[in-house]
Amino acid sequence: MMPIRLPSILRRVLAGLAGLAALAAVAIVAAPAQAAAIRDLTSVQGVRVNQLVGYGLVVGLSGTGDQATQVPYTTQSLLSMFQRLGINLPPGVASNLQPKDVAAVMVTANLPPFAQPGQQINVTVSAVGNASSLAGGTLLMTPLKGADGQTYAVAQGNVVVSGFGASSGGNTTQVNFLTAGLIANGATVERAVAGNFDQPGPLLLALNTPSFGTASRIADSINQQFGAGTATALNAGVVQVQAPPTAGARTAFLGQVEALDVTPQSPPAKVVIDARSGTVVLGQNVTIGACAVAHGNLSVTISTQYEVSQPNPLGAGQTAVVPQTTAKAKQDQAKLLMFNPGVTLEAVVRALNAVGAAPSDLIAILQAMKAAGALHAQLDVI
Known about the structure:
Blueprint: H1 8-29, E1 36-37, H2 38-41, E2 42-44, E3 50-59, H3 72-84, H4 91-95, E4 102-111, E5 120-127, E6 138-145, E7 151-158, E8 164-168, E9 171-175, E10 180-189, E11 203-207, H5 212-226, E12 231-233, E13 238-241, H6 247-258, E14 261-262, E15 270-274, E16 279-282, E17 287-288, E18 291-293, E19 298-309, E20 320-331, E21 337-339, H7 345-354, H8 359-371, E22 375-376, E23 378-381
Parallel strand pairs: 15-23
Antiparallel strand pairs: 1-14, 2-11, 3-4, 3-6, 4-5, 5-10, 6-7, 7-10, 8-9, 11-13, 12-13, 15-16, 17-22, 18-21, 19-20
């Protein structure tokens, strides 16, 4: 057979494509791992969000408020507010007061760190009585207190509900929830939370996901940028950083530290199962050992049919309804699946989905594999 000679131009094109493929392969192999900024991996101890809570009244409802006979504290709160405003109702009127346009609510908010008096924050309003809807209501001035009992913000404004509903003739239609709403910028901060950020001394960076490897890499990155001894990894969850003593210098220094990029250590192999919703989340690096899996379902069905027993027309019997009950048991055929050691859990899930395993079946199989020691991962059931 005569050898095939390619034209010189075609040979050069193929050689160029081969070179590009080799460079692409090298680029893929040499691609660095995904890095993240330190601010995305840690938080500064002492710089935190504080929860606020308060009790108030929402007025202006269109007959969807609390029923006074079943929720007496709504009327008591309304009478107390009237007294503070200088309105004194006669005893007979006060005892028969049954407003339908008022609802008792709990108001919650998150006070961000370094919040100063005059700033505005969002608040969430939730009914605590039997009000059917807060749509169209207005929250009256409500003090919001922290865990120490001090008032840090005051909330007031129109409640925005993200749902709607309608009812007529006993029929009801509802989309989302009507008994909770949001007031954007509905609270004004009245007091700042004292912190220790301005005090001299080292800063502590708390890792969002504790890891010895990630903590060591964060400390090494800071030391390479600012000098040896600047940062020390105390444990898997805390990195101690020597910071300047003055407030302005500490702020600038911490901004530079948080901007550094660090490649976090690969997270441990983990499988998270939400048994209530049937959700299964698989982490990376999850593998299994050699095992064989067979799973089947047993279903029992009981059905009852009613038949009419009609007596002879010439007899003295009466027509009666006779129930006929039938019970059936069915067991699905289980398919035996064999998995070799080292296979990833992704391959296991694909194989189980191929045989028609439902999420509940997958949860049961994963739990059994963990009990048998074949699942090489942490199994968290929430």
